[in-house]
Structures are given as structure tokens and as C-alpha cells.
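Shipment paperwork, digital attachment
Item: protein structure file
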Amino acid sequence: MSSTLSRRGGGKIRAPRRGLNGADVDFQTTWIVLETAFKEIHTKNASALSFEELYRNAYKLVLKKQGEELYKKVAEFEEQWLGSNVREEIVQTLSAPLMLTEGTGRTLATANERRQAGEKFLKRLKQSWEDHQVCMGMLTDVLMYMDRVYCADHRQPSIFAKSMGLFRDQILRTPVNANQSNLLEVLTRIILDQIQMERDGESIDPFLIKSNVYMLEGLYESDQEAEDEKLYLRSFEHDFLVRSAEFYREEGARLLKESDAGTYCRHAKRRIDEENDRCRSTLTEGTSPKIQRVVENELIRNKMKGLIEMDSGVAFMVDNDKLHELNLVFDLEARVDPKKPELTRAMQKIITEMGTNINNAAIAASEAQQAQAEPQPTEDQAEDGKAKPAPKPLNQQTAAALKWVEEILTLKDRFDNICRESFKTDQTIDQTLSTAINRSMADVINAFPRGSEYISLFIDNNMKSTVKDKTEAEVDKILEKAIVVLRYLQDKDMFEMYYKKHLCKRLLLKKSVSVDVEKQMITRMKVELGNSFTLKFEAMFKDMTLSEELSNGFKKHLAGVADAQDTKGIELSIKVLTSMTWPLEAFRSGHDGDGDAPKPQVIYPPTIRKVKDGFQRYYSQKHSGRKLTWQNNMGDVSIKARFPKSQTPVIDVECSTYAMLILLLFEDLPIDVTLSLEEIEAQTNIPLDDLKRNLQSLAVAPKTRFLVKQPMSREINPGDQFKYNQNYKPQFRRVRVGVVSAGNRVEGDKERKETEKKNNDNRNFQIEAAIVRIMKQRKELPHAQLLTETLTQLSQLFKPDVNMIKKRIEGLIEREYLERIEEAPVPSYRYLA
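Attachment content:
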């Protein structure tokens, strides 16, 4: 209508000629003409009107200073027209389904009845609003001069803006009937009801609602037309958000009771997407972040704790590897809090519970096996045709140690996979959760009292067997596993002690599968923990290399010595070990007593003693001033022996040095002559406990029963007699006599206490060294700052106790390395050069 009527005459409305200024203008007559034309416009009968003539009439009135009266008349006309005609048409569409309510804003009619009645009302209101805008557009063209002159000079709103305000007041704000809602409240209720129907799965007309929303966005609370005073914001949006919050609060509580966690997550995500789509298609995009915040608060923020703790919640998802559903939980909480506190706490709790179960199972297994442990013969092979006996308790304890590490690694791998698959943002693993999971893993590992020892045993087992016949990539994977679990360990100094013991045995007993892999492991430790951590490990390998060179040099030396003919056939392989580097106590058993007590000199046969003395002279010539201490209990021997009933004339017997000394006693004795335990001890000077264990291997173990024991029993007791077993029939050309305590195993309680005591002594030295380094650099320092810097320096190796640091400070003061600064305002110390 506006397109054809407003441009009638084929162009712009031209301003009147100046000659009109002197003409008399009768306001009432002119107004009747304008009023009649306005009625025609509002009734859509404006095709015959001359808009140029109408413009001239309005122009003349304004020109004759009658703009104010014209403005009032137009406003009164629009007010009367809206109130009498337009409003009546809209009110007639308000049928019973829209007006009969139950007191909660929702009508008593069925959903279909409400939808149809609501659409009828919305269509009428939409049409009235659009007609009003079209008509006022045409009136604005007619009254253009009034807007430009009178309204601008007198600071009145334009006639178009005035008419919008009249529409607001006469249509929307006027009550339908006495004591009833106005049309704005009815409109809000109908739109909210339509939206609720859509949430319940019914179809509505989004375009129809959006048209009415446009109307609310075009109207303002006051004539000032401030952006924050739009009726949409002030009247509708607030009610929409409040009603939505109530709906989602109730829905969330219901879903927590009725559905599983995965379904809840999917539903919440769908609701957020639905509301965003609704804002684009039905309301306005400016409401999108606000309604999204409402849904997130009611379905996520306020329900996240309950969602996580559901029977089908995060613990269930972790147990059943429901990684996609975990990702849904992660995405939901990430929407409301980037730190994800509830999910973080839940994951830490799950890791702690799983890790505690692993720790408790390992402790229970260790205690049960220690309680069952009894003295066992050293030979662990069964006789031919018989089943092997059950594993020894010590072996079972070692297996339990390896199982603990494997389970910890499995736990770590499991949660690493969860982080990769479920806790990612833009293809990047979430650092908050990853850090929290790593912290919990560290807490689990450090809560286990034997963690350092078990990790070292795990590496020991891999170095002795697992890396055999593996590819380079597989070896790297095994080494990385060890580093991963070591990375979490807090008491790395304790691990260093155990690793030295286990490495010592692997090197000296030739148990390591690959020296290169051993060195790779040490290189990885150096990268992870620093050069100082691996110094002694590297020194042990250096000793092994130098020892090999010494052995080869001694062989060449013997070849050129004239009096070496009587030792021909005896080959000596020597390992010269630096006493401060090698933990030789690793070869002591739990019965050896004080490892620092002087050991008796073992009596060697003359031929062997000659070789031993010859090497000692050779070494003294090479390294004057150094003293060699022979560790007899650590040696092993390969000797050739003949047995009457053997199928081969000569067999090789591999045994300990002590076992060799015992066997050589019977070499020149008549077959029936016996030696007692006391006689063997006197002739060899072997410590009694070592003697008993070696006699068990030689006279009790079925596969290596070279001697006959009288009386026959598992235990070696005073007075027992031994003689050569002429009926021994070896099954193979090579026989290995079991070496007591040769393998690495879990320490007993007594051994562990000794290790802890030694480690605490080492810690005292390290704490003092750290304090001296700090004070030497800083000269003077307050007590609190000295504690902090000392803790920081030592944190890479262990977490020292504060009381231990205080005692070391007192010790350094007594030895005059430090002194207290009496005049200092806070307790402070000064370094004494």
C-alpha cells in the first residue's frame, strides 16, 4: 500500500511555492481534510488521495505557526483510532483457551487448543502492527515538514515515534478488561507457552512469533527510546529467562533421578543447541548468550556434582571405558568453568582409590609371603619326572613387586588414554585435568612405602630377561616405562641406593642381557635427573672396563713368568671395585650380622693362593699405594670334575668360591672318609652361615648332590658328617650349583631398616652440603629463607623433613660452619669461612 500510495503523482512531494505564505489558512477546515485522508489511509482506501495536496495542507498549518495544534490533533487521532478500532479487533481474538489460567500462567486448555488460539492472536497482533507501521509511514510522508520544523524546534518526538508510543500504550498496556492482564502480558504468556510447547516436542510457527518479537524490539518503555528500554528486554526477555530457569531446574532434577549420566549429558547438550537455534529462528540472537547461561547454570553448574556422583557417573564411565560419555561430561563442565573443579576432584578421587587398592594388595601380598617364608634349600630344580616345587616365598615377593609396578603403569596408561580421548580441547589435552591426574598418580606412588625398591626391581627384571631378543623400538618402550614411573617418585635417593645394589649384582654375576641397554637406561636417568644422580652408576661401568683390562694384562704377565707352570690351566678373572662406589653389602644375606665387622681370612689351596698372591703383586706394581680387599663371598668358579658314573669323562661345575673350597677338600681324600661340619670350617675358615648354605647346595639339593650328608636332613647342624658321593650321576655336561642369595629380591624388614638407616645418614650429608652451598653463596640468610632454599635444592632427590634440616643447621653451628646473628630482627645465620 505504501509503495503505490506514497508515491502517487509520479515523484517526490514538492514543497509549495512561496506565494502560499500570504494565504489565510483555516485550521479546522484543513484538519478535516487531513483527518478524512488519514481515515482513508487507515482503512486502506488511499488510492484516490493526492499526497502532494495533503502535504501542502500540513505544510501551510506548520508555516502559520499551527504545528503544535496539528501535532496534538494527529496524536489524538491515532490514539482514538488505536483504542477504538485496532484494539477491539485484537481483543476479539482472545478466546477462552488463552484467558482461563490455573494461576501459574499456563491455561487450562489442551496444548492444541492453546496453540491454535495463540496463533490466531499472534497473527492479528502481527497484522495490526504491520498495518500501523505502513499507515504511519504514509502519515510521516504527509507530515514531513512538521517533523522537520515543529518537532525539531520544540524537541518533540517525530510523529512516527509518537505513534509507536501510542501503539504501546493503547494496544499493549491497556488491560483487556477490568482487573485483567493487559495485552503485553497476554502476548508474553502466549509466546512463552508456544516456546514451552516446542520444548515438549510439538510444532509451532517460529516466524509468527519472531514477527511479534520484532514488534517488541521496535517499542520502548518511554519516548526517549533508549536501547536498554526496549519492551523486548524489559518485559519479555526477563520473564522468558525466569520461566526457562524454572523449567530447566525441574527438568534437571527429574533427569538426575530417571536417566543415566550419559543420557543426561547428551540431553543437556541438545537443550543448549535447541535454545541457540530458537534464538536465531524464533526470538533474537541477543538473547542467545543469556538463555545459554541459564541452561548451563540449571543443567550443568548446579547439577554437575550430582551428575558426577550418579551410579552411572564418572566412576562408572571410567570402570567401563565409556570415553565418549566422559568427553560429554568434560565438555559440559568446561562450558561453565574452565578449571572443571568437580570433574577434576572426581578423577583424582578415582585414581586415589584405584591406586590405594593396588598399594594395599601389594602390601598384603608381601606380608602374607613373609609370614609363610621358611628356610628353603638353595636348589630350586625338581628331580627328573617330578613336578617343580612351588616358588619360594622370596620369588613370590619379587613377583608381587613386579606386579605392583605393572599395575601402576597400567593405571597410568589407562588415565593417559582417558586424557587423550576424553579430555581434549581443540585437539589439545586439557592441562588442568592432566596435571591433576599426574599429581594423583605421584601421590599414589609415593604413598607406597616400598615404591623405590619395587621400581628398581622392575628395571632389574627387564635388564635380566625382558629386553632379550627385543627390537630397538621395543627396548626404548620398556626403558621409557621405567622412566615414567621413576618420574613420579619423590624419594629418588632411596631409589638410587636400591638401583646401585641391583646393578651391582647384575654386573658382577653377569645377569644383564645387554650392557648397551644398561648404559641407555643410565643415559635416560641422566637426562631426567641430572649428571650427579648417575655418577656412581657410570663409575661402576668404568670399573668393569678397567677390570677386564687388568685381567687381560695379568694373563699376559703370567705367560712371561717362569714359575707360573704349576698354575697353568688356572684362569683368573678379576673385578677390581672402588669401595666407595660399589654397594658390596648387596651380597650379604640377612644372617651375616654386621657388614662392617672384619671378615676372617679364607684358607685357599696352595695353587690357588699362588695365583691370588701373584695378582696382588702385579696390581701393586701397577698401582702403588692401593690396597686390595678380597671379597670371597662374591666370587664364582668354573671347575672340571670327574665322576665314576658320569656318561662323559669330564663335566664342568659352576659354583661359588666357597663351594669350590669345600669340594677341593674331598679331592685327595679316600672315598669313605668323612669330614664333619666343624672340620670343614676349620680347614677353610669359611664363615659358618655361608658354609651351611653352600653345604646345603652340595649335599641336599638333588641335582647337585656331590656330597653325602649324614644324617640326611634339610638343615645343616653341628656334628653332621660329609663324604664324597661316588654314586652321583650328572645328567648334563655342565652342572650349575645354586648360588645362595645371588638374585635380586625384595628386602626383608631387617634389611629394609638397615637400608633406610643408611639412606637417612646419606640425607644428613646431603642436607648439610646443601646448607653450606647456600650459605657460602649468600653469606647471611634468615632462617625461614634458608629452609625454603634448602627444600628447593633437595626436592629433586627427596623431600626432607623440616626438623631434619633444623638439626643439621644446629650441627653446622656446633662445628662452626655457621653462626647465629644475634642482632638480626628475625632468626638469621652467617656463614663462617
